[in-house]
Input
Amino acid sequence: MDIQNHYYGHSAVFARYIGAKRLRHVAGLIQHGWTVSSPVTAQFGDFADWGPSRRRLSWTSTSRAWSPADPGNFFEDGTNMLTAVGAPYLYLLQAAKDSGSLPPRGEKALVLPLHGTALLKVDGDHDAYAQMVREQDGPARVCLHIDDLHDDVILSAWKAAGHEVVSAGDRRDPKFIGRILTMMSEARRVVSNRLSTSIMYAAVSGAEVAIYGPDFKLGHNAAADPGLIMRDIWPEFYDETTPQSVLIKLAEAELGLGDMRRPEELKHLLGWDKSTAGPFLEYWASGPLTKVQTVLGLKKVPEGAHATEAGLSPWHWMRHPLKHLPSPLPQLPALAPVEPLHA
Output
């Protein structure tokens, strides 16, 4: 239905889990990152008026920040938009545990600084953060977002401080999530300067987690920056005295451990137990058209959707159209850890 289903290798993990031999188009939307608001507004807003025949597959039904019972998560006919299935990372982690393919834990810390995208820029002092990490955790492995990896100023800040710089790759690379699994499994400690998807992954993977560093600013609309409320909702992650066992339980809830599905059930929810001709046409035609209408302001989205992008002109989005438009579905990688890319 939309390219976001295939970000970070999420659809590929689901396909391998159900035993599929190739990737198919999804009859709905898959949540592609941990959020501090409902996925309906955070990720699915462009398609909020597409009816209940297209499922919105959220990771969890037990987030502290939002609930499937919130009024904004229902269609006009009273149908709940969200169906929780568990985060794809949990399926990959369990498969690696079952096969004994998880790499051994090492001595280095892993650092994932808050990152931006081609559309949302981050304002922050990477030099100061790199030096702070060096002082507190020694020479670390630093995973930079692909856009930051191509920024010479950011890359040199971390390398100059003596850190190893790696990347999980482009978000359309189906091996992305396998690289994240490897890094989370090998790190003795995972650090970021903001609570994030990566911190949740690290906690459920058994790594020690910590949040410290300069407060980077995300996006054009500072008032809508989700970092403003994270400390209030999840104070345990910001308290160095919180037992890691507590953080693991919190992360399991946020990622939807209790919402994971059996293969046949997940296959049905993805729409992969029948023809995907409709989702194919939506992926290549009506979906991109809907997103363009949203960018141009010709289509209404739920209140709060794209809040961090408020004030940006349509031209800003059109400067990077290929970042948002569909591309052919990739081949399926193995359901296993993958070595990260080195800078």
